[in-house]
Every structure is written in C-alpha cells, then in structure tokens.
Amino acid sequence: MAMPSSASDEQEEFLTTINTTPLVDVMLVLLIIFLITIPAVTASIKVNLPQENQQRHVIEPESIVLTINAHGNVFLGDTQMHNSTDLTQNLQSLANNRPQPEVQVMGDAATTFQAIGRVLNIAKSVGLSKIHFVTEPRGTLAP
Q1: pLDDT in tens, 59-84
Q2: How many other CB atoms are found less than 10 A from the CB of residue 142?
Q3: Domain layout of the chain by residue ranges
Q4: 0.70 exceeded by the pTM?
Q5: Fold type of domain 63-133
C-alpha cells in the first residue's frame, strides 16, 4: 500500500453516516400505494353470509394417571396394582381405545428410577406411546 503523496490525499475523509433519503423516499411511495389501495379493498360488495349451526365434535383422548409412591407402589387412578401382571392387563385394555389415551406418570420425588422405569416399560410394551411426566413448578414443593 502506498503512502499518501500529497496533502490533498491526507485531507480526504470517509463518509461514515448512512444516507437515509432513498429509504424515506421508498417508504413514502409505499405509504401512498397502501393509502390508495385500502379503499378499493374495503368497498367490496356486501353479502349476507349464512351462519354455521353445527358445532365441532372433538373427541379428546382420556388420560391415564399412573402414580408411583415413595415405596414403589403403583396406582392406576386410585386403584393399587399389586403386581406387574395386573398393571399390564389394565393398561392393555386401555391401550386398545381410540384415540389412544395419554399416560400421565406422577412419580414421588423419593421413589427409585427403577420403579418408574418398570412402569414405563410396561406402558411401552402394551403399545402406549403418549407418556408424560407430571411435575410441580419450581417453588411449590411442600417443605
């Protein structure tokens, strides 16, 4: 790179400001176009449309609540499952429903991961795929 050879080269400065005049011109043109086209859109032919009388019938899947207490006991709703076979049979009958129900797993904070994993394996083996864990929001745990 060559060094400036004269005093005029040293006095040249770069323009570091943004020229907003073209931007303002374009925005004003767009504003005028929108102001002209809005009345044309709103001045359409008025039509009295019929009202809908039908209500949508949405089938919501039921929720299966599986609770696992601190001792590893499993409850389906309020009913205690005494062994894995009882839980498998009950979940199998619920898994055949259409739409398939959602499983909400409520595990005690003191329970083991093995107890929760056993319940998840049974739910997966009968074909249940919508499994959610229920937790408490931060700061709401009992002392």
Answers
A1: 566 788 899 998 889 998 888 988 88
A2: 4
A3: 63-133
A4: no
A5: Nucleotidyltransferase; domain 5 (3.30.420)
